Amino acid sequence: MPVFQLFLIAVIQGITEFLPVSSSGHLILLPKLTGIADQGLVIDVAVHVGTLFAVVIYFWSDVRAAGAGALRLLTGRVDTPGAFLALCLAVATVPVMLAGLALKLSGLDQALRSTAVIGWTMLIFGIVLYVADQRGAQTRTAAGWSLKDALVMGLWQALALIPGTSRSGITITAARSLGYDREGGAKLAMLMSIPTIAMAGLLLGVDVVGQADAALARDGAIAAGFAFISALLALTFMMRLLRSVSFTPYVIYRIVLGVILLGIAYL
């Protein structure tokens, strides 16, 4: 695969994975709107791995605490902040795992990959994000995350299986509706992405076992590297921007893109 195409796919995935604009929607649209050949599952796995490493490094202190806490959790102890964080992340991940399995077994995951679906979800969930962001209180921080809120955010996260919804966007929407401040809500959404992306990458990896050859493995490594760099830059940009700006710029982008896609789909 040409390096430019790998670069394009990786940058789209890296930038849109953590911004509330839907990475899956953009990757589905890329071959539909440009005529470029679909990148295939191996490259999908590679760019997911790249973005996973980016969020792990950015939130390394929290990831390290949750990792140590997970070991305590396995012994039945929830006696440290890290163990409680690990428990919350586990609870938040269960709904999307169950919903994802149901979609895959039913075959609906492929049926939803249409321009019209992405257009509607871009538009509708962009408006929902705007309402939650403008009306939601900012009285809570990420440090006050509870098991109940983890479950609520996990249920919202399951909606991200519909292309165009945006995993980060829908979980940030949930956090803002629960009263978390913008930076705290975004942090929780990003931490929730770690087990979710890891599980998605594992499932995709099972599908591609035996497919990769030396050339494809090289392409995957290149794509993962590009995705890692672009994701880390996008994540850093968004978290700094949220200290002074709302989510409105992302909402405007979603609405404009949604209207354009609906025009393409129906006209």
Quaternary structure type: single chain
Q: Write down the secondary-structure element order.
A: HHHHHHHHHHHH
- The gyration radius over C-alpha positions equals 18 Å
DSSP helix fraction: over 70%
Class of secondary structure makeup: mainly alpha
Quantity of strands, as a count:
0
The end-to-end distance, rounded to whole angstroms, is 33 Å
Q: What fraction of the residues are assigned to beta strands by DSSP?
A: under 5%
Number of domains: 1
Coarse morphology? globular
Query: Whole-number average pLDDT?
Result: 90
Number of helical runs? 12
Give the uncertain stretches in residue-range form.
none
Largest sheet, if any? none
What attributes characterize this protein structure?
single chain, 267 residues, mainly alpha, 78% helix, 0% strand, globular
Architecture overview:
By secondary structure, this protein is mainly α. It has one domain. Helix content is 78%, strand content 0%. The protein is globular and about 50 Å long.
